Amino acid sequence: MRIFITGGSGCIGHYIADLLIKNTNHELFFLVRNPSKVKFDYNYRSGINIIEDNLTNILAYKDILNTINIAILIATCWGGEVESYQINVEANINLINCLNKKNCERIIYFSTASILDQKNQLLPQAGEIGTDYIKTKYQCFTQLEKHPLYPKIITVYPTLVFGGDEKKPSSHLSAGLKDLPKWFNLIRWFQADGGFHVIHGQDIATIIGYLVENGDKLDPSFERKLVLANSPLTVNQAIKEIGNYLNKKVYLQIPLPIWLANVFIKVFNIQMAKWDYFCLNYRYFTYDKYVNPQSFGLDYYVPNISKLLEISGV
Questions:
Q1: The pLDDT of residue 235 is above 80
Q2: For residue 119, with 0-12 CB atoms within 10 Å meaning exposed, 13-18 middle and 19 or more buried, which class applies?
Q3: Number of structural domains the chain divides into
Q4: Which of 102, 128, 207, 270 gives a 20 to 30 Å CA spacing to 256?
Q5: What single-letter DSSP state applies at residue 248?
């Protein structure tokens, strides 16, 4: 098959690129803005093509896109109202418009779990007060729902993503793990009400590899919308697991209720965006339905917090 990939120079993109290059014989087209950031071996075999350009210029590649069987859309812009809309909405829609409905078998589109509520439905606040990144992801998905190719789109919603090594760039979260042992000496004395999911880039790549080959065989209950996540964790569970890994005991913990956090915000005049304040009060970014490699009978790379800290060198 001929596969077109955007966002290959990022953390998730590197894991997916490495898997597709080494484990398949598909012809791959990587659109990358800055090839100097590419660490995967695009000379590993034949059939790997690097296209140096910005996603905003995607219409220049109509001829290639017309022949594509699978599009994997990872590229994103994290901030800037105009730039985020240009990349996260306009460019992705333009790319999909260039695909030939006869040749295109499926589109794997990366959104974010932040635009969903706990029942896996769209979260209105994400579209109203979300960051530029979150708001435009919300806007893009609502447009895709009306697109003629929507029946061929599999939307994936990553939760908190970790990953990175000497051959792959680190995710924003993994980059901060090196300071965890220092901060944990303070963190372990507190309790907080909240919940979340994590997932590693390698496990995301495993799922995408499965979807490339078997996306047409998805269980109908998934509705072609997949939250990518390990089992949910409460904040307090995470603190205990980290303490066990670091061999630092968690003794008496001081509860940090929301009302106290709100007092601190007012007393110290902490400036918070509407979305930040919403997240503080929403607290549980967990989902009823989610998938990980185990969902498809595949091997996990990072099933829990301890393994995540181990491979991260913490």
A1: yes
A2: exposed
A3: 2
A4: 128
A5: -
How far is Cα 73 from Cα 89, in angstroms, rounded to an integer?
A: 11
The first and second tokens of residue 300, run together, are 């996990």
Query: Does residue 170 lie in a domain region?
Result: no
Contact at 8 Å (CB) between 70 and 123? no
Q: Quick one: 16 and 146 in the same domain?
A: yes
Where helices occur in 124-257 by DSSP H, the ranges are: 124-129, 132-144, 172-175, 180-187, 201-214, 235-246
pLDDT digits (tens, 9 = 90+) for 64-82: 999 999 999 999 999 899 9
The answer to whether residues 181 and 211 belong to one domain is no
Integer Cα distance of 160 and 229 in angstroms = 8
Distance CA 81, CA 242 (A): 37
- Please give the model's pTM, rounded to 2 decimal places: 0.94
Please answer whether residues 238 and 186 qualify as being in contact, where contact means their C-beta atoms are separated by less than 8 angstroms.
Answer: no
Please indicate, yes or no, whether residues 124 and 33 belong to a single structural domain of this protein.
yes
Q: Which residues of 206-219 are buried (b: 16+ CB within 10 A; e: fewer)?
A: bbbbbbbeebeebe
Asked if residue 225 and residue 243 are part of one domain, the reply reads no
Q: Are residues 182 and 143 part of one domain?
A: no
Question: How distant, in Å, are the alpha carbons of 48, 136, 216, 233, 273 from that of 277?
Answer: 45, 19, 40, 21, 6
Would the pLDDT of 120 be above 70? yes
pLDDT band at 158 (very low <50, low <70, confident <90, very high): very high
Name the token pair of 274. Answer: 């509407």
Q: Is the pLDDT of residue 260 over 80?
A: no
Task: Note whether 146 and 208 are same-domain residues.
Answer: yes
